[in-house]
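Re-running the complex after MR caught last week's input typo. The corrected sequence lines follow. Everything else is unchanged.
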Amino acid sequence: MCTLKAFQKKIGVNWQLYLLFLPTLAYFLIFQYGPLYGIQIAFKDFSAVRGITGSPWIGFEHFERFFGSYQFWTLLYNTIELSLYGLLVGFPVPIILALLLNQLGHERFKRFVQTVSYAPHFISTVVLVGMMFVFLSPNSGLLNQIIVAFGGDPVFFMARPEWFKTLFVFSTVWQSAGWGAIIYLAALASIDPGLHEAARIDGASKLQRIRHIDLPGIMPTIIILFILEIGKLMTVGFEKAYLMQNSLNIDSSEIIQTYVYKTGLLGAQFSFSTAVGLFDAVINFMILILFNRLSRRISETSLW
Amino acid sequence: MSTWTKKAGLGLLAAALGTSLLAACSNGNNETPGGAEAEPGDNFNATGYPIVDEKETQHFVISKGPAHGDFDEMDTVQALEEMTNVHIQWEAISQSGFDEKKNLMFASGELPDGFFLGLNSQDVIQYGQQGILLPLEDLIEQYAPNISRIFEDYPAVRQAATAPDGHIYALPWFEGYEYFLYRNTLLINKTWLDNLGLDVPETTEEFHEVLKAFKTQDPNGNGKADEMASTWLHNEATRGYYELFGAFGAVDAMDMFSIEDGKVRFEGVRDEYRDGLNYLHALYADGLIDPETFTQNADQLAAKTRTGNVGVLAAFTGIFELGEELLSEHYVAVPPLKGPNGDQLWRRQDNRLQQNFFSITSENPHPEVAIRLADAMNETDMRVQLHRGPFGTHLQRTDDGLIEPVDPPAGVNALEFKGQEAPLNSLPLLYPQEDLDLNKPDAPQRYRMEFYEIYKPYIVPEENYFPLTYIDEEKTRRLAILETDIMQYIRKMEAKWIIEGGADAEWDAYLKELGNMGLEEYIQIHQDVYDNLMSAQ
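Corrected-run output:
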């Protein structure tokens, strides 16, 4: 009772802040937590007439079907490989870019590079994949014309399973590195210039200053962003994988998200695809908790 | 900042599904099967036109094709409304996003009054048996004399429209021209053949030689080796390379099922199919097949073929792919090639009759109005106009009473010209033979008739063709599960073997893998379906 009163008093004092917070809370309740109720169809034989609550329970049948399916190991392997590859290549690039940009003395050149590097962020995925098809075409693509001009044989990049993941990851890097560097630049800007000055007087080189001042300065930001990335590890860009997919590269391009889309929304097997999606989410959730705990122990930075 | 909660909470898609399904619980428990039982009101006329005295609106979903204009603006649609006094509220969804939107409609229970073209057989059976789509047979008998007459005169039409439980949940499309018996015409650049002094190839061997000559001997005479020998589509019936397998004795390399002595046979595991793959690989290895065959779509293919710099392509008529000028001046049809063992087959694909062009949902308050609307579309003059455009601007009557198409203005694509004013082949139109006989063929039809005569003797006979039929819900579900894995694997291996070769070496592993995926059950279900169908006849 007492605590409730204290709580009420607190609200009374800061009511404007709570009012500002309200839309966000409502958003999460309605659009993020509310739909969780639909998860139950993963354990049901959903039919549209009976609705979510009316459909009969069937236990883990859909999960068993997925685990036993021919596709299971390929899907899991592709999803994990693509995620890790994307994380290992994609995560450091914006940091390096930000560190380099931060060292640039020439203000106008710095701004120019920054603008050029984050412009691709505004290209839609559909257009990006379209560009890839054009540039990498075996008949008329720019890259293959260069290869042929140097006496090589044209490579049909978009159709080779072994190229799919590299193309996927590096096109994402091209598109998002500049944008991702912004947050690190902000963190770098908050580092006390006095430290740099002192280091310079002590005779530290640029590289040494990056290593001993800049990097430790933005380390908390890096760790938080890394954990956030881990949080969406298993949710690889669905749109892009789907758009880049074809019969020839399906071996490495079929990931859990594209499979869920195909069976669920195109094939109308709602229960089954919900089960697959849920499996994906649970794994992801476990990885997130694990990393958060690890990070708290090692670096004392964590999400909660 | 919020991303982790979101993703960790639930996969993005599951969330999306969940949101839309939320709505289902409010609507979904509604037990009333719609207005099927309700008595038609005073407003409704059981015979004669208009169908309703006071204007009524029916909300219909339709799959919008690339050639369609705005349905509300179409002259023929307005004429239909004038005649029937029923206003159709069109929800036109483009083909590429159709399946997704349609599935969400059913899952959320937010249904229209009915569907024109767009549902697939699985939907029709599943939602029909669940009561979301109404059985139409009584309505047809009571209110639809035109459709009833077709069903009486053409029992095959009625049979193809009937579900295994005996109900009719969807009306088909029926246009009985014989030239709909096969899909692709194999077109070759005759000018190039003449420039090189070659004849139209007759065997697979000669075909290979001709393509090689196209590639290497500069048939367009510009001094550069810029010719494309051939371009196709992979995993598509129209513009695909699947007819070529007939020269090796494979009956249907597209749909994979055939009938031999009453037994269902799966073509994808036959040596004949493998021989075809090896042949295509030989072509590919010599650079005679466009590598983009495996990734391009119809528009991208047409962009290449319309330049006229392609030696060989497969097409329904070639009008879309080449344009009439190129087609008439430079290209001719290649008769079915003779294979090394003397096989000479052309894949059958019977499109005279197509399922699922009209369904009524349980949400429809006046199903009797809807069925009369479908019947009104099948009045002789109305039908041809809804299909081919209005009299005056698009059609005219000749002196001997035939209906003749008006040429589109110069530079306008014939299909788009029609699609501005007519819904084309997206409505439940069923032609009796005497009405087809009224049509004077237009240019595409004339080409098609001419091509059909060439292929006719070689088209796979009807008794070897897996017939058009509905499959009951339980089997459909099982098939959906099996088919995803099996067909995806087959297409993947097909593409791989054509590009890299190795079909012979990997064949046994391939058969074993298909076995693991449940191929036997997949075939057995088709056998059961076929047996049921035969015993019902």
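None of the earlier attempt is carried over here. Chain B has 22 helices and 13 strands. Chain B has a mean pLDDT of 89.
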